[in-house]
Amino acid sequence: MAYSEFELIERFFNRGLVRRADVVLGIGDDGAILTVPAGHELVVTIDTLVAGVHFPLTTAPRDVGYKALAVNLSDLAAMGATPAWFTLAIALPENDADWLAEFCEGMFSLAREHNVQLVGGDTTRGPLTITIQAHGFVPAGNALRRSGAQAGDAIYVTGTLGDAGVGLLSAEGRVDLSHSAVEFFTDRLNRPSPRVLIGPQLRGVASSCIDISDGLCADLGHILECSGVGACIELGKLPLSAALKNCRDHSLPRNLFGDSSPPWAARYDYVLAAGDDYELCFTLPLVHEQRLSQFANLPCSLTRIGQIELEKGLRVRDVSGNRHSVPMRGYQHF
Ligand code: ADP
Ligand code: MG
């Protein structure tokens, strides 16, 4: 069954079920009309997923739909914003109703979970590309930024790191894992949990925040550069999933340091520098540390992994107490 552009929009995109009171006018006109609550600022973010670049061509359409929205909600969380609306620009190679139905199911399942409404978009023919722009609110002046970290602040991350990187290796057939491990890592790659419930609670508590999309070293590196400080990470404190702890060191190809990978890096390579985790990394003054225990509805752990230092650059301390300089890099497109 082939649909016209307008039938596609009606049949698939105008069926999101989320209906927010602050949407004066949603899909169907030349633009959406939206109400930002008094005393709040609008935080806007956009991300594009290109088939074959941001996800393997074999990825299930429902995972593509889920992840396209998830990465944007993750950016809003990193700003401390509560998500409200999103728009979707999609280029489709063909008019495939089954593909679209599944894509929308994945995207709208996450939209419903966080009460975000699709309020408009654009539908065209072309190589499969999905661009989502998401909008959220923060009380005026209270958004979290990459700048603001100060020497002495503690560095925290949510959840566990490195799982999605191993999931990508597995999708590319570059690592040999048990069936249940493949399932776990693939799920972490395709279905990241944006930390929507945590970001807003960090307002007024964290001194800086970023979401980890390109790997801890690269993204913490952005905090360090924007804040004009350095940091030391305790390797032994990094949060690893049980599945990643179970991977034998030699079973994973080297990552951060290439072939010159130092021995201490072995099992931390993916934790430090693999992309696609979509966890939050934030810093906070020690006097605020107590407040983390009062956070409500925590869906994952918060782990203190190190400290901000005056000396610029990024260092890790291995389990024997030796410090090593590490590059502040991760995944880069260019
Ligand atoms: P225009 O030609 O004025 O740009 P369109 O014909 O592209 O309008 O879109 C008609 C309506 O459908 C608009 O409200 C637009 O926001 C919405 N729309 C189009 N594509 C999508 C999509 N992929 N997701 C959500 N809404 C969409
Ligand atoms: Mg248009």
Topology, pairings included?
Layout: H1 5-13, E1 23-25, E2 33-34, E3 40-50, H2 61-78, E4 82-92, H3 97-113, E5 117-125, E6 129-139, E7 154-158, H4 163-171, H5 179-190, E8 208-212, H6 216-227, E9 230-234, H7 242-246, H8 269-273, E10 279-284, E11 302-309, E12 313-317, E13 323-326
Parallel strand pairs: 4-5, 9-12
Antiparallel strand pairs: 1-2, 3-6, 4-6, 7-10, 7-11, 8-10, 9-11, 12-13
Helix pairs in contact: 2-3, 4-5
The chain binds adenosine-5'-diphosphate (ADP) and magnesium ion.
The site of adenosine-5'-diphosphate has 13 residues, from helix 1, strand 4 and strand 5.
Descriptive account of the structure:
The protein has two domains: 5-139, 2-Layer Sandwich (60s Ribosomal Protein L30, Chain: A); 154-324, Alpha-Beta Complex (Phosphoribosyl-aminoimidazole Synthetase, Chain A, domain 2). It is 26% helix and 25% strand. The chain is built from eight helices and 13 strands. It has helices spanning 5-13, 61-78, 97-113, 163-171, 179-190, 216-227, 242-246, 269-273, and strands spanning 23-25, 33-34, 40-50, 82-92, 117-125, 129-139, 154-158, 208-212, 230-234, 279-284, 302-309, 313-317, 323-326. The protein has a seven-stranded mixed sheet with strand order 8-10-7-11-9-12-13, with helices on both faces. It has a four-stranded mixed sheet with strand order 3-6-4-5. It has a two-stranded antiparallel sheet with strand order 1-2. Helix 3 (97-113) links the parallel strand 4 (82-92) and strand 5. The chain starts with a helix and ends in an 8-residue tail after the last strand. Bound molecules: adenosine-5'-diphosphate (ADP) and magnesium ion. Adenosine-5'-diphosphate binds at residues 9, 13, 27-30, 88, 90, 118, 120-123.
